[in-house]
Design brief:
single chain, 331 residues, Rossmann fold, 5-stranded parallel sheet
C-alpha cells in the first residue's frame, strides 16, 4: 500500500517551524488547512461539476481547506493548468480526467507528493492518482420506478450528454427501474455529444416528445425546459431542479459529493491518502446518493413502493445492477 507520507504536502516543514517559533507567544498553534485546487472543463453551474464545487465550497466554509478553481478549461489546456497547481504546491487537486486521462496521469506521476483525485472511467494509479465517480445508479433506479408507474403512453424519452460509462450506467439503472414496475414501457435514447449545450438537449427532447414520449429523463440541462413548454413531466439527474421547474419534475436522483471530498481531505490531512477508488462514497449507504420526490405530483402508493425498495437497498437486500454499455432506443 503506497501512501503520501507528508500529510499536508511540502509546506508542512515550514508550518512546523513557524509553529515551534511561536510556541511561547501563542495559546495554541492553529491547525493548517489543506490547500485544494479544482479544474473543471465546464462552468461550475453544470450539473456534474456543481456537485464537486458545492462539496469543496462547504469544506472551505467549515475552515478545513483553502480552495481555488479553474472552470471552462479546454482539454488542450488541462495539462498546463494541472501542472501550474502542482507547481504551486497544492495538497490536493480535484478534477475530471475523462477526456484527458493520459495527460492527467502523466502530470500526477511527475508530482508524487501532490494528491490527485480525479473523476475517471478507469482505475487509480500509484502512488497518488485516486479516482471517483458519481455512482448514483441506485437512486436512478428508484426514479425509473416512478417514471414507469407514471407514464401513460408507455414511452419515455432520454437525452444524455456523451455515451460514456458514467452516463450509461445511470440510464440503464433508470430503465431497469421503469421496466420493473411496467414491462410495457419503451425508451427513446439520444446523446447530444456535449456536456453543456441546453439548446441542443432541448431540441432532442422536443423530437422525442413529438414521437410520443410523455416523461423525459433529463440527464442534461435543456430537457426540463422542453418539458415545461410541452407540459410533460420529467425526471431530474444529479441535482434537484424542482424549484426551477415547478409541477414538472416528478423526482430526481441526487449526487452528494461531500462524503467523497470529506474522506479525501481527511486522508490528505492524516497522511493516509493513496491511489484508491473513492467511488464507494457516492453510494446511498455512504450518503453519496439520494432521491427526492415531489409528493404533490407522485401518488402516495408509488412513493411507498419506492421507499420500500430504497430501504431494501440501504439494508443490503437489493442490489441495482451496473451496466456501462451504451443504451439504445427500443420504441
Amino acid at each position: 500500500m503506497t501512501r503520501i507520507s507528508k500529510p499536508l504536502g511540502r509546506r508542512m516543514f515550514m508550518a512546523v517551524a513557524a509553529a515551534t517559533a511561536a510556541l511561547f507567544t501563542l495559546p495554541a498553534a492553529a491547525e493548517e488547512k489543506a490547500d485544494v485546487a479544482a479544474i473543471y472543463t465546464v462552468p461550475v453551474e453544470q450539473q456534474w461539476v456543481s456537485r464537486i464545487h458545492k462539496a469543496l465550497k462547504a469544506a472551505e466554509a467549515e475552515g478545513r481547506i483553502t480552495y481555488e478553481f479553474s472552470e471552462n478549461v479546454a482539454n488542450t489546456d488541462y495539462e498546463r493548468v494541472m501542472r501550474e497547481y502542482a507547481e504551486a504546491d497544492k495538497d490536493l487537486v480535484v478534477g475530471e480526467a475523462f477526456a484527458v486521462e493520459r495527460a492527467a496521469r502523466n502530470v500526477a506521476a511527475d508530482y508524487p507528493e501532490v494528491a490527485f483525485l480525479m473523476g475517471s472511467s478507469f482505475g487509480p494509479a500509484k502512488p497518488n492518482f485516486a479516482v471517483f465517480d458519481n455512482w448514483i445508479h441506485e437512486p436512478s433506479y428508484l426514479t425509473g420506478m416512478i417514471a414507469g408507474e407514471m407514464t401513460e403512453s408507455d414511452k419515455i424519452g432520454m437525452v444524455g450528454g456523451f455515451a460514456i460509462p458514467e452516463v450509461n450506467r445511470l440510464m440503464h439503472a433508470f430503465m431497469a427501474g421503469a421496466r420493473e414496475v411496467n414491462p410495457e414501457v419503451c425508451f427513446m435514447v439520444s446523446f447530444i455529444n456535449s456536456w453543456y449545450d441546453p439548446p441542443k438537449a432541448k431540441e432532442a427532447a422536443f423530437a422525442q416528445m413529438d414521437a410520443g414520449a410523455d416523461i423525459m429523463y433529463a440527464e442534461r440541462f435543456g430537457v426540463s425546459d422542453a418539458a415545461v413548454e410541452r407540459d410533460v413531466k420529467a425526471i431530474g439527474n444529479v441535482i434537484d431542479t424542482a424549484g426551477d421547474y415547478p409541477d414538472t419534475i416528478l423526482a430526481s436522483a441526487i449526487w452528494h459529493m461531500e462524503p467523497t471530498i470529506d474522506q479525501a481531505i481527511e486522508d490528505v490531512a492524516s497522511g493516509d491518502f493513496e491511489a484508491a477508488d473513492y467511488g464507494q462514497y457516492s453510494f446511498m449507504a455512504h450518503g453519496g446518493g439520494s432521491i427526492v420526490i415531489d409528493e404533490s405530483l407522485v401518488p402516495e402508493k408509488v412513493v411507498e413502493e419506492v421507499e420500500a425498495t430504497k430501504q431494501e437497498i440501504l439494508n443490503g437486500m437489493f442490489r441495482v445492477n451496473v451496466n456501462d454499455e451504451e443504451p439504445s432506443s427500443d420504441c
